Amino acid sequence: MKEIANLARIVTLRRLKNEPLLDLNDRQPGKEVQLATLLAADVNVTALGVVKQLYGKHTSANQTAFLRLRVRVQDKLLNHLFFLDHSDTRLFVARRYELECLDLLHKVTILYLEGEYVLSERLLRRCLRAAEKGEFTNYAEQACHRLCTLYAGQRQQHKYSEATKKLHKLRQILAYEHESEELAMQVSLTMRRTVAVRQVLLPKMAAHLERAQQLHQKAKTFTTFLALYRLQLIQAGLVGDYKEIIRSTTAATQLLRKGKLNERRFDQRFNQFMSVYAHLRGRQYAAGLKLAEEYAANLHPTSNNWFYYYEHYILLALHAGEYDKALLLFHTVQKNPSLSKQRPAAQERWGLLQAYVEFVQPADRIPLRRRNQLAIFAALTVPEYTRDKQGYNVAILVFQLLHYLRQRSLEPVLSRLERLRKYQQRHLRDVATLRSRLLLRLLLLLPEGEFNATALAKRGQNLLAQLSQAPMVGEADAEIEIIPYEQVWTLVLDILRNGAPE
Questions:
Q1: Tens-place pLDDT, residues 431-448
Q2: Beta-carbon contacts of residue 475 (< 8 Å; ≥ 6 apart)
Q3: What's the predicted TM-score (pTM) here?
Q4: What's the superkingdom here (predicted)?
Q5: Long-range contacts of 302-308, Cβ-Cβ distance < 8 Å, separation of 24 or more
Q6: Residue 198 pLDDT exceeds 90
Q7: Banded pLDDT at 430 (limits 50, 70, 90)
């Protein structure tokens, strides 16, 4: 009882005079709760709109009152972060266990500063057990370090010696983990750079994997395993071995089921995404689409991973020729209020993906307003995506060509064909870009065949056969195919059967 009595004394004597939280259940909410409710309902609401709703009209006095109110509300909302519900199974699996450790460390810090050492030790040992169970070596090291400090201050030599011995071991393991994490993060950052940089990375991957393996053998923790596992998946993606990614993700799932991977740390959703991604890149569209539908419910719609997942889900539908499904999936994405929070580069990708999804639909399914916006998108003179040959430049130019073919506008068609020819000469020279080069060679047949679908189908037979046999290359070289290039050629011929550009 003494410990809880001391805790009650600390809280009652040192509590804040003003409530640090919002009473969100208040039946007669004040201005603070009203503001929080307004902001939660509409993330795009303007300051002017809020002032008018809260105070009736916009005046300088009301504006000043609003600014002060906003500061108070923000501080109280930040305080609410300590009391969020993390039990949703769609959230990152390690979140609630990691936050449990952080919560205990925060409480211990306050108790120690208040001179409550008995309860501090009890919570530190509890934190140490939770950290070790979840293999959070960094939090285990912090808890152990604080125990050493506490025992030294209390002159408990035996406990101090035991804790110090454990601390040294944890710090050595932590050093291995830090090195493995830094290695994995550096490789991941390189993977987001240009194709030229990725190609330089490829011959270095064997050494990176060997070092990651050495670190895992020394530490034998989940953190070093995860770094090694991710590097193995990156290596397979770089060389285009998507069957290996499917095999690796299946094997990891089996290890988890057998209890050989920490269930508090291994997030099955990452594994599920990598499997869906590998099915897409490995041309196993039907199986991948089935898996994507099964796994979709496991993701929380507020996470960035949700959008990245749905991007690949829609691509699977497009590649499988399930255009109706692709449109329905895109409508699901549009309804997600977090879409507007995506980075500019992601917004651009979604814009291009939307253009393709809507283009392959029957005209009566797309509102006139959207058809006009597609026309504006097609009129762009310079792609706003990566300048490197990896990425979406070909997809943009091909979409513009398809649009003007459908509009039967000869001059813009010839202009896009010339841009594609120049793009091929500048960027699509090495072996890894074979599929893109074959598609562009097919498209450049259009004026030679006088835009006659029957003649072009015959003249393009050999190139189409080569395209169908050309392998999907790895991430070190790949140009993104929003619609498989074979389907693009079929789409071109279908458009031309309705009339050639004039």
A1: 667 888 899 999 999 999
A2: 191, 198, 234, 237, 238, 240
A3: 0.82
A4: Bacteria
A5: 302/338, 303/91, 303/92, 304/342, 305/269, 305/273, 306/336, 306/338, 307/333, 307/336, 307/338, 307/339, 307/342, 307/346, 307/350, 308/273
A6: no
A7: low
The 10s digit of each residue's pLDDT in 56-105 is 888 888 899 989 999 999 999 999 998 888 887 777 889 899 999 999 99
Of 83, 105, 126, the residue that ends a domain is 83
Contacts 24+ apart (CB under 8 A), 484-491: 484/319, 485/435, 485/436, 485/438, 485/439, 487/319, 487/321, 488/398, 488/402, 488/439, 489/439, 489/442, 489/443, 489/460, 489/464, 491/360, 491/402
Arithmetic mean of pLDDT, 198-213: 93
492: number of CA atoms within 13 Å, CB side? 31
Q: Looking at 83, 115, 147, which one is the last position of a domain?
A: 83
What is the C-alpha to C-alpha distance for residues 206 and 196, in angstroms, rounded to an integer? Answer: 18
> For residues 65 and 55, is the Cβ–Cβ distance under 8 A?
yes
* Residue 391, domain extent: 380-502
Q: Which two tokens stand for residue 433?
A: 């870009």
Are 439 and 369 in the same domain? no
Q: How far is CA 385 from the centre of its chain?
A: 18
265: which DSSP letter? T
Residue 282, in any domain of the structure: no
pLDDT tens digits, residue range 110-132? Answer: 999 999 999 999 999 999 999 99
Q: Is residue 458 part of a domain?
A: yes
- State how many domains the chain has: 3
Angle between helices 222-239 and 157-191 (to 10 degrees): 10
> Is 359 in the same domain as 391?
no
Question: What integer pLDDT is reported at residue 385 of this predicted model?
Answer: 44
Q: Is residue 451 part of a domain?
A: yes
Both 345 and 419 in a single domain? no
Q: Which residues contact 6 (CB under 8 A, 6 or more apart)?
A: 116, 119
- Rounded CA-CA distance 29/478 in Å is 55
What pLDDT shows up at residue 464? 92
